Amino acid sequence: MQKKKENFRPLRSVTTFALAAAIITGSIYSVAAAADFSADAKQAVTSEGVELANGDIIYAGLDETGFTSRMLKAVEIKIDCNGKRRNVSLAKGTVADVLERTGIKPAHDEVVEPALSTPIAKNLTVKIYKGKKLSVTADGRTDSVYAPNGNVCAVLAELGYTLSDDDILNVDRNSSIEDADKIVIKRVIYKNETKTQSVDFKTVKKNSKDVDLGKTKVQTEGKKGEALVTEKCKYIDGKKVSSETVDKKITKKPVDRVVLMGTKGSNVSNPAGTFTDNNGNTVAYSSVVTGSGTAYTAPAGSLTATGVTAYHGGVAVNPNIIPYGSKLYIVSTDGSFVYGYATAVDTGGALMAGTAIVDCFYNTYNECVNFGRRNVNVYIVG
Known about the structure:
The chain is 7% helix and 47% strand. The protein is mainly beta. The protein folds into five domains: 5-72, no CATH class; 75-130, Ubiquitin-like (UB roll); 134-186, no CATH class; 196-259, Resuscitation-promoting factor rpfb (Resuscitation-promoting factor rpfb fold, Single Sheet); 266-380, Beta Barrel (Barwin-like endoglucanases), CATH 2.40.40. The strands form eight sheets. A six-stranded mixed barrel has the order 24-28-25-27-26-29. Strands 2, 4, 5, 6 and 7 form a five-stranded antiparallel β-sheet that branches. The radius of gyration is 48 Å and the shape is elongated. The model is unreliable at 1-47 (pLDDT under 50). Keywords: Signal. InterPro entries: 3D_dom, 3D_YorM, DUF348, G5_dom, Resuscitation_pf_RpfB. Residues 185-265 form the G5 domain. This is Cell wall-binding protein YocH.
């Protein structure tokens, strides 16, 4: 209910306790009250109460039951201004009111603890001292400030700089402000962003007896699909520095590109595929075995396991895997070394033990050393 101040007149000079009240039917008003003070007693009488010399405040009023009053007791507040100590008693207000009452005006390089907006409370101590000169860069600007004592995180908060857990500082948050002359705050935020992304199609190869050996034919053209991709993006001071995909939903499936590989005219029944030999010819194969390949030599006229004389192009195998007489094409898996066409005519201990899948015959020891041991593809072509 709004007070009707035109019916209120505070008393500023009294010698005995008095009560001034204004009564309007159905309304209750706060009134001013005063007490008997000595001639030099200072008092500040307002419509909200009478402040006594000791800082207490008396409130008085009238309600339906008659005269009512209460007292708000003052608390003693300690002040330390650059080593000079004094006390003041106030019943209400903030640290700013303490400074105003005592006439203390901090210089531009002084700080006040606690903050000016801190409410008055019992056992409160107000300190005024010269602050630590500090440069703070944040949010696109650099300020020169005078900071209170404490750790970096607490001081920045007191100066009005809000920090998130992700923000980056050039100093340790928990270090003393005394160790810092310049603080740079880099704001870090994360945003989830969505975008449409194309999805590549796959190329699928299929053998076809309807297409000539060495030829290819596109059966189905490939078409790219689409996906809705959600990325978690990291921004530092407004600049995107990284992103990671956190979700991906296919909204349009890609269509595979299907290529028919010609096997028509091949001497291999049921070919598994084709390869291109070192002469550029497309060759069909029935199967391929991949593994470790080695090389060996033997004196001229030496016989193989199948009874034929050892020769370049005759190789040793495990006949349980690659039958004797099989026509082969041997090339390193990385394509850097080609032994070429060969026939399975021999075997050996390493082959039967499974430590090698083929042992290639050479006429000289140096050729064997040059081949060494390497991973190879052994295509069975007939």
